[in-house]
Design brief:
Helix content is about 45%, strand content about 0%. By secondary structure, the chain is an all-alpha fold.
Length: about 110
């Protein structure tokens, strides 16, 4: 039985780099003298920048938003019980409140 010969690739011999003062091995042997300064993290601005023009939503977009919100209200109760008209009216009030808040924020 013969075994296939494998040829090992030869890599050119490269000398090991000299230990730098910042290398891990050099740092492990010496005590830290000074701690690196930490970066200050500033809180992000949670409010979007004020728009130059008020945001506008077409009547069709508003209607789609209300439909989605009413659907999610019914879905949250597994489509059992409840009143579809009440879901619609509450969704309409919620969307109008959100759109009103968006318009007020953009007017600032």
């Amino acid at each position: 039985m013969t075994t296939p010969k494998t040829t090992a690739r030869r890599t050119p011999a490269t000398p090991e780099p000299a230990a730098k003062t910042g290398s891990r091995s050099a740092r492990a042997n010496t005590a830290p003298t000074e701690k690196a300064p930490t970066r200050t993290v500033r809180p992000r601005n949670t409010r979007p920048p004020a728009a130059k023009e008020p945001l506008s939503v077409s009547p069709e977009q508003r209607l789609c938003m209300i439909q989605d919100a009413a659907y999610y209200r019914a879905e949250s109760r597994a489509f059992r019980g409840g009143d579809p008209m009440r879901d619609w009216l509450e969704a309409e009030a919620e969307i109008d409140r959100l759109l009103g808040a968006t318009r007020a924020m953009s007017a600032d």
